[in-house]
Amino acid sequence: MQKWLLLLVVALTGCSSQPEAVSNTYLLPVSVQGDAAQSGTNQPLLVVRPVEMAEHLAGAGLVYQISDTEVVQARQNLWAESISDQLTRKIKDDLRLKQSAYWPTELSPAFSAVGLPRLQVKLNQFNGHYSGRVKVSGEWLMLDGKGKLQGVYPFHFQVPLEKDGYDAQVKALSEGMSRLTSQIAQKLSPMPATVTAKR
């Protein structure tokens, strides 16, 4: 009996001394707002639709491409919040800073998107890459207030990592999105809208 008790204590001690798996969680860097909040008066609203992610990118883990055909999703390096939600917010915030044709806003129960122009971003690459870069690619679409397609714009950005590691990957992915919002801002031109931002 004492022998079995001793074995049980040893087994439990061995299990408890095993290092626990530690998860790291990441957020995209926040856009610097500056005085952007003062610039929305009387600008037509632009609804930034939730970013659509390819299925292999939509999980909780950061994604890394290890060969021409294989991608892996990290199990212990995770997004602290839905990556689609983070990207939608980043696009909205960046566009408030980078252009003045519209006042970008996210969908909200407070108003209906009917009659408002819409921006839709779709991502098929948003991952680290064995080349030492991150890849951010997909397309963005503009629709007018009636839902009529105004343009489809493909994009593909590669940003080198400043150093190894997931923190560097997150920063490079954010830079790729900043390049995308700069491209969008350059192409935006006012379309008829029935609602303007009043604050």
Provide a descriptive summary of the structure in words.
The chain has helices at residues 2-16, 83-98, 166-187; strands spanning 24-26, 45-48, 52-53, 61-65, 71-79, 103-106, 118-129, 133-143, 149-160. The chain is of the alpha/beta class and 199 residues long. Strands 1, 2, 3, 4, 5, 6, 7, 8 and 9 form a 9-stranded mixed sheet that branches. Strand 4 (61-65) and strand 5 (71-79) form a beta hairpin. Helix 2 crosses helix 3. It is elongated, with a radius of gyration of 22 Å. Residues 1-17 have low confidence and may be disordered.
**What global shape is seen?**
elongated
Computed structural class: alpha/beta
What is the helix/strand order?
HEEEEEHEEEEH
Unreliable spans are: 1-17
> Biggest β-sheet: count, sense, barrel?
9 strands, mixed
Average of pLDDT: 85
Number of strands: 9
End-to-end Cα distance: 77 Å
Radius of gyration: 22 Å
Strand content: 25-35%
Helical content stands at 25-40%
* Contiguous helical run count: 3
